[in-house]
Amino acid sequence: MSSILDKFLADAEKRSFDPEHRRRLDFNIGRYDEKVITGKLQYFDLELARRRVAMRKHKVLSNLDRYLVEFESNFEKRGGKVIWAPSEKDAQKEILSIIKKADAHLIVKQKTMLSEELEINEFLQKHKREVIETDLGEFIVQLAGEKPYHILTPAMHKSKEDVAQLFHEKFGTPLHSTPEDIARFVREQLRIKFIRADVGITGGNFLVADAGALVLTENEGNGLLCYAFPKIHIAIVGIEKIIPSLDDLDLFLPLLATYGTGQQITAYNNIIFGPKMNGEPDGPEEMYVILIDNRRTEVLKHREQRQALACIRCGACLNACPIYRSIGGYTYGAVYSGPIGSVISPHFLGMKDYNHLSYASSLCGKCTEVCSMHIPLHELLLYNRNEAVKKGFAKSSWKFIMKGLKMVMLRRWMIDKTGAGVKNRAFRMYFRKKWGPRRELPKFAEKNFKQMWLEKHQDN
Q: pTM for the full model?
């Protein structure tokens, strides 16, 4: 058993039986669930909207190269620069090159999961640059020396008392500060950073091919300030974030808001066409979009799992997943947690070491049911499991059990002739440990269904 799997199992057990952790997640996710129900009421035919965006993304993923080249051409016509980064190292190198060339030392950064994937903060700090997270949730976890706990809500695992305690320790604010007090304090702190920043780094919710535009959607306005104040704006965006046209935003933006936070539409929706033009008072003098692959094309090779690249990071599958709600975000040991993380992380990080994430699911199908993009997530987990077995990553003991079950299932007489006592002993021998110490093994009845059926109808 690998050390990664050992840690996953130990962390999962610890988190699952931590009642305070479960209480916080249930409370925070419960508030989102309530809002999402209300948000969905804006749709006359929600399923039609979901099917339409799914079809648009399917079209894009089938023609990804064409749309990316179209975006590059249109974006550079307006003075922007596109950089292609096949790997994490390539992206880090390009970002550092831009920053060094500008002799920049203070960087403000909008919330973006891709920067966590590329470990941008740690990388730039090693090169003596100050990086400030400007999203309130990201600011909190950065201050605590932690990573985001949830795709959409980085500080999902913290209570308001935890945050007040943290700010009291770091800044000397009153111990009983309210969330409003904390938000006001952070706004004042960040205002100075925005004005002094040399470079702003953002992600990108969408790239629009026909307009050559970057779309940022947010609720706090920090993303807008990250590119409006600094002279240089760097946007790091996964190649899968492309959409064909500006006309598609009327589908994508409301769905992302509805499934993410229960809003009809997010508070701030910015469409950025490049650096500021002559006569424009605001905006960066230079703008770069770094298109990140980092094994996304590896996922694209798979006929089924490629559907996961349609994800718009609404976080709905995490909120719905009973496993995530039990073990939390950090247990996964990967940037992307929950059902979507369990699908893509084994491909991003290596199937050999991370195939266990595809088993971290009850396969209840709730993630598929709530996915804004109609991604069959629980089915994709099964494809991952199948791939792991075919590549020889399944344990020998599990292979032995499966071969035994196959042999029995193909020979009905073995099931009929074997008594319940023998079946129960065999079941205890092979499955007791795998079933877990806290669950009672099911017991075989003295008579199976076939026997009872024959007895009932023997006179007919």
A: 0.91
